[in-house]
Amino acid sequence: MNRTLSLIAAVVLLAAPAAAEMKTLNGAGATFPYPIYSKWFDEYHKVKPDLQINYQSIGSGGGIRQVTERTVDFGATDGPMTNQQQFKVDGKILHIPAVLGAVVPAYNLKGIEDLKLSGPILADIFLGKITRWTDAAIAKLNPGVTLPDAAITVVHRSDGSGTTYCFVDYLSKVSAEWKKKVGTATAVNWPVGLGGKGNEGVAGLVKQTPNALGYVELIYAKQNDISFASVQNKAGKFVKASIDGVSAAAAGTKMPKDYRVSITDADGEAAYPISTFTWLLIYEKNTGDKGSVLKDFLKWMLKDGQGMASALGYAPLPASVNAMVAKTIEVIK
Questions:
Q1: Alpha helices in 48-118 (DSSP H)
Q2: Most C-beta atoms within 10 A of its C-beta, which of 123, 162, 295, 308?
Q3: pLDDT tens per residue across span 176-216
Q4: Would 6 be classed as within a structural domain?
Q5: Is 53 contained in some domain?
Q6: 151, 79, 154: which is closest to 123 by C-alpha?
Q7: Are residue 55 and residue 145 in the same domain, yes or no?
Q8: Structural domain harbouring 72
Q9: How many domains does the chain have?
Q10: 231 and 125 belong to one structural domain
Q11: CATH number of the CATH domain containing 78
């Protein structure tokens, strides 16, 4: 009897389908889109239970470095790779726009909910030229607001960062002095201030430091309940960062074929001036079946993932860009 049961059990085991082998993709890079990427990878795992996508939020500079060294399957950045950086990569890298977001001037001023700042003033603060909150230039933009007679504690990123790239790209467009002395890059030589690692680090420093001013991606200000200033745009309007303001900044942009584009200081009365695309860095040629796995995920991102962006404070891709990207990802092997 026992022998018969054993034979039956063996037949059942042989007939049962083998469990699907778990596949893994590893990525690293920008902290700016980390909240939406975490959401996407969790949701996509429900669609593809046999696929685990791991992502390290280490900053755009780290993402570019790991893609260059081929220690990850994909990277992520908010500051597009330069031609020089791309030449160092073994194989072609595709910049795939994922979503759009805003970088906000986050501040810690007790009792002040609505602060207005301009690009030139932000540049002068981060250059160390404006050092106190009662400076006449700040007071002029904020009539009726009782500003503290206190020193401004400047907070910036300490790591290579696409959030930094977006912020200083904007400052370079609105301040000739900033462009000459500091310039645009994912990592710059800061004239003044304290450094924090990642959007998380800057948000933490601003929140715990009275009279501080830093810059973070919009979702980090909201998640940490940190006030952020309205910024005067190219049309002279003060705009508070929002999904609509980011979308307005992207609306008039002519997208190049390689998707490496800046939308800071955009035209339009409703445009929020410190807006940016964020990109996934994808190898055109991948090992094994990773290319097809990545391609399937990117198709899902364009179709289903975009609908999750707004709830997390990001703007979905414009329809025209979505259609462009859908064609681009077909070259992934």
A1: 60-69, 83-87
A2: 162
A3: 999 999 999 989 999 999 999 999 999 999 999 999 999 99
A4: no
A5: yes
A6: 154
A7: no
A8: 24-100+276-331
A9: 2
A10: yes
A11: 3.40.190.10
E-strand spans in the chain?
23-29, 51-57, 74-77, 93-107, 116-117, 153-157, 194-196, 212-217, 227-228, 230-232, 238-239, 275-283
- Start-to-end CA span in the chain (Å): 55
Q: Three-state SS for 66?
A: helix
Q: How far is CA 122 from CA 127, 151, 178, 249, in A?
A: 8, 15, 10, 19
> Which are the contacts of 198, defined by CB distance < 8 A and separation ≥ 6?
31, 57, 58, 59, 157, 159, 161
Q: What does the DSSP assignment read for 213-241?
A: EEEEEHHHHHHTT-EE-EEE-TTS-EE--
**Same domain, residue pair 106 and 247:** yes
Reported pTM: 0.87
Does the CA dihedral 316-318-324-327 come out positive or negative? positive
Intervals of the chain under pLDDT 70:
1-20
